[in-house]
Amino acid sequence: MKKAPLLSLLALSIVLVVGLLGNWRFSRRAQARALPGFQPSPTPEILPNGWYRYTDYAAGYAISYPADVRFILSRDKTLEFPQVYLLLPPSTGRDNQWMTILVLRNTEKLLPLQFIIQDIRETFRGHETMQVFPKTVYFGSQEAFQIDISPFLPGVYIFNQDKVYFLALHADMLSGLPPTPGAREMFFKIADTFTLLEDKGR
Question: Residue 70 is part of a domain; what is its CATH number?
Fold first, then answer.
């Protein structure tokens, strides 16, 4: 009899995320189209420290996350690779905080700064004059480029050949509040586990 409240809570969480995304023109490459359908998390690898590890062989990366983070895949036909949603626990300071992982293609072989400026301007259409100042950061030995533009607080681009991995922590569009310090801390702990599959040294 305890399953009903648990299922209701899960359904409510998914509806809430869909509602949040609906308030924000999030689909980037697929604006004005139907929101993607959520699917349950695949069975993850359990690590010795108790964290879970998700591997996407087709997209070419793996990432780890704590057991109390809710993992959801979004398979949108307009995207080449599944999008990952990591719903952060209330222990990060507030409900309704999450990060995403989106895999993009750099088909024009743009330099990182050129790609980031183009991507931001496409995402925030109508704001072509927006100034973008990426900051270089490192996850292990992996170079990345960080932006802090709401609702990406922060957002991180990682470049590998013709793929670009965009990891972002999102502001709560319903409350209008930015992510808490606890959410930012967890975002960077999770992002620091990001591994390119051909990178055997990490």
Answer: 3.40.1000
Whole-model pTM: value is: 0.78
Per the DSSP assignment, residues forming a β-bridge with 138 are 143
Residue 170 lies in a domain: yes
Is 159 inside any structural domain?
Answer: yes
Nearest C-alpha neighbor of 196 from the set 165, 170, 174: 165
Rounded CA separation 11/147 (Å): 32
In sequence order, what E strands does 18-57 have? 37-39, 45-46, 52-56
Single-letter amino acid code for the residue at 15: V
pLDDT digits (tens, 9 = 90+) for 47-72: 999 999 999 999 999 999 999 999 99
User: Which phi-psi region, left, alpha or beta, contains residue 50 (left: φ > 0; alpha: ψ -120 to 50)?
Assistant: left
Q: Which two tokens stand for residue 147?
A: 């932006």
